[in-house]
């Protein structure tokens, strides 16, 4: 079966190089009866890939049993997997068949395998090595012909080092490892996937078909998608249900994208590939998302309060809470290294267009003036450019400083003669506006 037929059969959408590599590996590892470990973030579609592996194997006419190890209480996971004899524990009023017996001849998909307790890991290793097990509370040795596919969103090698996962089981499970890429590494797939979800939910809810505007498409491609395909599907469903027109616009999408309304970030910062994200970067993203969620909750509470006749100030956050979050963001943010000084001959100083007929730039600087600024700023303004307000001029200077120093706040603050903390607060105020 070629890749296109595989995608059509199992409903796997996308044509990015990262996805094509995964599907090519699926076609390779599915026929041999080998244990497969799927690694990837939450929401990337690991269960869909497991279904494809089972569906292309010789076991495809038998059952695929799906078990979420993280959803089973620790005290019950062994009886769920291997079964239990009557009276094996309180409440065991009859013999219970486990998932291994149910999957005999087929495939057992153990999702979130990193959540499995150590005692159950010992029994699982025995089954993988010999195919033999016994029910909880029983002495009879049973046999199950089962292929195991495991999945995790954790770094199992790190879990082994921390003593939370058995090393021998890790090596047994990782005979073949397939890494499912996050959606931020498949940016070419984002808009086609979103449009496919729109079509699906339009049929499901008997709603009009929605087109995606170019601005909305750019926003979708630029967003980091921390929830991956699951988050994309949820946003598409919300867009269909809440749409008031025949198109999905950027403004209607922003409230549904975590972190976009917070300002600096997830939509504007290019997310590095998994494995290259530093701890500081992860903390910074989490703080940005927290601030965005706080703002959304406050807005919702104010709306409810307004309808109930309650004062708006009732829902304001304590000042020290906002200050603490701002301080944490300032500490977590690590600006990129400063680039080499720009060539003055190639630099153009740009002001915002304050009116429709205002010129957008002053041209290249001349003489020994500061790079990017005209020598005679007063003369340039005297040519007829409408005077900006102090707030507009300050905003333009901040944007120019950040552009000139490639986002380095420390150098920008020094050039503007203000503290870095003051600059940070002014940036936050601009974002709020």
TrEMBL record:
<dbReference type="InterPro" id="IPR058031">
    <property type="entry name" value="AAA_lid_NorR"/>
</dbReference>
<dbReference type="InterPro" id="IPR002078">
    <property type="entry name" value="Sigma_54_int"/>
</dbReference>
<dbReference type="InterPro" id="IPR025662">
    <property type="entry name" value="Sigma_54_int_dom_ATP-bd_1"/>
</dbReference>
<keyword id="KW-0067">ATP-binding</keyword>
<dbReference type="Pfam" id="PF00158">
    <property type="entry name" value="Sigma54_activat"/>
</dbReference>
<dbReference type="InterPro" id="IPR025944">
    <property type="entry name" value="Sigma_54_int_dom_CS"/>
</dbReference>
<dbReference type="Pfam" id="PF02954">
    <property type="entry name" value="HTH_8"/>
</dbReference>
<keyword id="KW-0238">DNA-binding</keyword>
<keyword id="KW-0547">Nucleotide-binding</keyword>
<dbReference type="InterPro" id="IPR002197">
    <property type="entry name" value="HTH_Fis"/>
</dbReference>
<dbReference type="InterPro" id="IPR003593">
    <property type="entry name" value="AAA+_ATPase"/>
</dbReference>
<keyword id="KW-0805">Transcription regulation</keyword>
<protein>
    <submittedName>
        <fullName>Sigma-54 dependent transcriptional regulator</fullName>
    </submittedName>
</protein>
<keyword id="KW-0804">Transcription</keyword>
<dbReference type="Pfam" id="PF25601">
    <property type="entry name" value="AAA_lid_14"/>
</dbReference>
<feature type="domain" description="Sigma-54 factor interaction">
    <location>
        <begin position="12"/>
        <end position="241"/>
    </location>
</feature>
<dbReference type="InterPro" id="IPR025943">
    <property type="entry name" value="Sigma_54_int_dom_ATP-bd_2"/>
</dbReference>
<dbReference type="InterPro" id="IPR027417">
    <property type="entry name" value="P-loop_NTPase"/>
</dbReference>
<dbReference type="InterPro" id="IPR009057">
    <property type="entry name" value="Homeodomain-like_sf"/>
</dbReference>
């Amino acid at each position: 079966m070629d890749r296109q037929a595989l995608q059509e059969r199992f409903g796997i959408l996308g044509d990015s190089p990262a996805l094509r590599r995964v599907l090519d590996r699926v076609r390779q590892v599915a026929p041999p009866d080998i244990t497969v470990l799927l690694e990837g973030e939450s929401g990337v579609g690991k269960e869909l890939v497991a279904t494809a592996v089972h569906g292309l194997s010789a076991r495809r006419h038998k059952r695929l049993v799906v078990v979420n190890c993280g959803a089973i209480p620790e005290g019950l996971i062994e009886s769920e997997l291997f079964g239990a004899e009557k009276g094996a524990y309180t409440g065991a009023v009859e013999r219970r068949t486990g998932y291994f017996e149910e999957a005999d001849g087929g495939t057992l998909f153990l999702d979130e395998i990193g959540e499995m307790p150590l005692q159950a890991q010992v029994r699982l290793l025995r089954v993988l090595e010999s195919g033999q097990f016994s029910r909880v509370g029983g002495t009879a040795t049973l046999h199950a012909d089962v292929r195991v596919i495991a999945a995790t969103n954790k770094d199992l090698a790190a879990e082994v080092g921390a003593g939370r996962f058995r090393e021998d089981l890790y090596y047994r499970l990782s005979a073949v490892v397939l890494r499912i890429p996050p959606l931020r590494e498949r940016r070419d797939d984002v808009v086609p996937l979103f449009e496919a979800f729109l079509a699906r939910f339009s049929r499901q809810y008997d709603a009009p078909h929605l087109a995606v505007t170019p601005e909305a498409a750019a926003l979708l491609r630029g967003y980091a998608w921390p929830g991956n395909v699951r988050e994309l599907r949820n946003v598409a469903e919300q867009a269909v249900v809440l749409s008031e027109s025949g198109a999905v616009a950027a403004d209607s999408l922003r409230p549904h994208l975590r972190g976009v309304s917070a300002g600096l970030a997830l939509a504007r910062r290019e997310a590095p590939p998994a494995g290259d994200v530093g701890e500081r970067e992860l903390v910074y993203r989490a703080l940005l998302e927290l601030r965005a969620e706080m703002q959304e909750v406050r807005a919702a509470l104010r709306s409810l309060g307004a309808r109930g006749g309650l004062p708006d100030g009732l829902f304001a956050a304590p000042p020290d809470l906002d200050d603490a979050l701002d301080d944490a963001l300032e500490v977590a943010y690590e600006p990129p290294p400063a680039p080499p000084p720009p060539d003055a001959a190639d630099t153009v100083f740009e002001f915002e267009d304050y009116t429709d007929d205002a010129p957008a730039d002053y041209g290249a600087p001349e003489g020994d003036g500061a790079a990017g600024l005209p020598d005679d700023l007063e003369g340039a303004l005297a040519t007829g450019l409408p005077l900006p307000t102090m707030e507009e001029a300050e905003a333009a200077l901040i944007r120019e400083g950040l552009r000139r120093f490639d986002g380095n706040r420390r150098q920008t603050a020094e050039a503007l003669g203000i503290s870095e903390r003051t600059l940070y607060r002014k940036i936050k105020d601009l974002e709020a506006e």
